[in-house]
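Methods: example folding runs. The two proteins below were folded one after another, and each record is reproduced exactly as written to the output file, sequence line first and structure-token line second.
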Amino acid sequence: MRIFVRKFFPASLILYCLVSAASGVALAAPDLMVYPTRVVMNDRQRTAQVDIINTSQVKASYKISLVRKRMTDTGGFEDVASPQPAEKFADDLVKYSPRQVTLLPGAGQTIRMMLKVPAALEEGEYRSHLVFTKMVSGISDLSEQDASDPNTVSMKVVTNIGVSIPVIARHGKLEAQAAIDPSSVKVVAVEPKQQLVDFTLSRTGTRSVYGDVAVYRGDEKVAVGNGLAIYTPNLTRKVGVPVLDTFMLKPGEHIRVVFTERDEKKPMAETTITLP
């Protein structure tokens, strides 16, 4: 596989990624910009790329790896020690390069990926996570004061910072449906002037779902949640969408909760309730 290296990304791309991060389609870590925030490949589209930019003021090195993670029912991720029977992972199917990069401040790199589909591969959705881990040296650091005392040892503790994005490989003809449980919809006050619309989103079918949530009171959009996913094999996810600061929901009002898959216009799931 050829490795494509670009010493510095043009200013226009850096600006695009900064704007994208603000709109939720790029991932901005403390010193690393990653775009896109998820990768989907399938039988017809077997290649993809991820662009990263060092946004810090110092040179940094990153180790790049594909790891297995499990989604929790609240949308978090945990490392997989023992795979469950229904879990399918993409790290054996996806080849990528490079696996380590060193970037000057403002410099970027393109990570190339390719999906390899074995002849006997079972139909389904396979997922692993591309992780970018900052590499640091664990060198002891002696202050001037401590260096004068041979009996004193001072250690500098440095933490590795990792950024991860899902990499999804779909094989075969897959489909999915979603639903919102109306009995689960409720408004919760988390602060005196801050509310959340809580509900349970469910998924059926052979692939994951990924999209955005909007809550309406009449024609007014009162709450928004972007980039919500239920990854296979999970069937449900507990969702909490913050109500916009300019609105306050009250008992007896009618609200409509809508989930729409990304890049689709027709809602995938919706429900209307009267707030108790």
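Second run, written to the same file directly after the first:
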Amino acid sequence: MVEVAPFKGITYNKEKIAQLDDVMSPPYDIISPKKQEELYEKHPNNFVRLILGKQLPSDSETNNRYTRAKKDFNTWQNQDILKKSNLDSIYPYQISYTMDGKKKIMNGFFILLQLDKEYKQVKAHEKTLSKPKADRLELMRACHANLEPIQLLYIDEKDSIHKQLENTLKKEPMIRVKGSDQFTHSLWCETDQTVISTIQEYLQNNILFIADGHHRYQTAINYAEEQEQKTQNSDPHATFNYRMVILVNMFDEGLAILPTHRLLNLQIPDRKQLMKQIETYFTIETYLRKPNPKKHTKESEHIKQQLQKTSQHSFALVFNDEYYILRLKDESIMKTFAKERTQTWQQLDVSILHKILIEHILHITPETLEDHVKYTRVDEEALSEVDSGSFNCSILMNPTKIQELKEVAEASEHMPQKSTYFLPKMLSGLVMYKMEE
């Protein structure tokens, strides 16, 4: 059974912060070092100081990014910069943005979710990496709080939950800000217990799918188990057994999935031999290119259009002097490479990419993946990182479909890491949840 609960959220105090836009932040895992510096300079109370503080040469066990986050979090609460609600609430959330020239609106709401440690009602579709989990666990230990939400999808074909919140959404939001993504983020506070109870009842028999935050969800489970052992409190309703999440209807028209491209740090001494191996499984179209930063946007758009031309499983392998459009010849070959997997998993672009190209041909194993493969959601960056020499080559791909995500998760399977990138991204700093200690 899915159990959700309202909570006393912590938000920035508008009486203390003149311009709330200045203290908001993108999610921690998409903040570049340059963006981190910009956010630090933007405002002394910018949320980045909590979720992704700077690392200093003088860092020690007693003075580091996590201890500083704890100190700032506590200080800002004591100074009333961050203010806790008096009432248990859920927080309707709306993001307005433009994509491909079309205006879109995504609706969701912040709420607490009781952790499903066995993933029976909460379905994950991606494996997690060790380093991000260790990082987020240290931050949670320090602050005893959920500073950022996890995004999950629920199934509501009639949009009944959104209809419950329509009256609240007609009111002026408690927070409306523009993020660095130039999207408009609006937050309301819903305290009506009848509305909350109706939503709780609807979700009881639902299945939830993690969209964004696999590492944070598993970290929350690890933290809860750690706290249970530490405190000897086995109450399933203990505060550490809940996690702040944003729930979004899977059928919300404002929801989109973008691809996550691969950047490869791998020496390839004989490219002709490599392409000969690839040709066993893929047809190959070869195109010359000349590195030109001014043309990266146009070039990446052209490559994406080439990938979308057919229904075949297609990828673009990019070097600094050439790129190759690869199209799988026969998807039945995946029965050989992943015979233990379901047909849905076998036919995912990301599965084909990892099993055939990355693992079989390039000999990058799941154990060495973190050493050789990095990721970018920015099309142009998949070209610029190669042209700058930071990476040997990159692989551009098409996005995963929501229906594919649903089917894989329902089968309790996991896609390779970084298989999905949901848009719009949630803004960090809107509301927080402090666990009782």
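Comment on the second run: The domain at 260-398 is CATH 3.30.1760 (Conserved hypothetical protein from pyrococcus furiosus pfu- 392566-001, domain 2).
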